[in-house]
């Protein structure tokens, strides 16, 4: 049985709700590309989540999923470092969602802020479904299925990660107390060998009697290093350390990326629905056209009026994409009316175009080779499934669903 270290395992997901834009690239994909070298990463195209809001418009879904896979690959998410897969190709997501639904209080779902917010914001969509109410639980299942301890997300997702933690805690509380837990834990300690067992006992005592957090950390590290121990025994000893039961589903943590939010053409957050996005597949002339049309400092009516970058939506894009030298040139030129707005936009247009060219070239290669993309996704789903099955067999066992 493989041993999972939740703190080294990353899971994240993205809804295939349309073409990706610079905000996805800058805020999400670049971060994933970095993480894939230092963590065991699972990246999931969450097509079932797309259905929770778009069940009445399924025709574009499969193409969006394929486009998303191509754009991830083009951005440098690498199938040799990370596992890329489609959520619905791993049916264990749906199964864990169902099993967790048994213990998930309705009130927890109803008070997740996105539930009411989305209902108010997304007009013309029926969000009065069971599926939509269960959105955060499906997301919790995505994460808990892989025992992922680290979930890179934007700050808008914090409530969902907190919810996943609550569900995990409740599950562990209800089912981690297997019959004979203490005896089983004591037996597992004996299997550590005499020296390690003494060390474990001392550290456990230091934590439980004196609240020594460093001792808890050391004991956890000690357990992590135990190569020959079964996953079950390991979970018992993790749980026993803190005085609880078995940790069947580890509680995940959000990992917020430090890159600032990408703002769109109008200065508000870039998103498809705000109609202010530069898409990764926009041509060079699309980019030029979009940036040229961007509004600027409203106080700068005439070319001879000095402007203020802080009041101009072009400025945050410069800060994101331009060199320090160009940024200085913009600030000085704008405030002294030394440059015009089109002049100011020219280097930005150039840099964004340059940023997109290699991405689009790689995307074209993958698009010309759809079988390769399908194969990458199938292999990803296989890898994901074998991890998912291990968790589910423990979950089934805990719930008494083990028939032989
Ligand atoms: N709800 C997330 C979003 O809208 C997408 C998502 C689904 C996700 N499952 C996930 C993110 C699991 C992280 C982990 O962005
Ligand atoms: Fe904006 Fe540049 Fe025009 Fe200043 S010069 S208002 S920063 S576009």
From TrEMBL:
One GO term of the biological process aspect: tryptophanyl-tRNA aminoacylation
One Gene Ontology cellular component annotation held by this UniProt entry: cytosol
Alphabetic keyword roster: Aminoacyl-tRNA synthetase, ATP-binding, Ligase, Nucleotide-binding, Protein biosynthesis
Domain of life of the source: Bacteria
Matching Pfam families: tRNA-synt_1b
Keyword Protein biosynthesis tagged: yes
Catalytic activity: tRNA(Trp) + L-tryptophan + ATP = L-tryptophyl-tRNA(Trp) + AMP + diphosphate + H(+)
Record-listed E.C. numbers: 6.1.1.2
GO molecular function, one term: ATP binding
Family of this protein: Belongs to the class-I aminoacyl-tRNA synthetase family.
Protein name per UniProt: Tryptophan--tRNA ligase
Originating species: Pseudomonas xionganensis
Organism placement in taxonomy: Bacteria, Pseudomonadati, Pseudomonadota, Gammaproteobacteria, Pseudomonadales
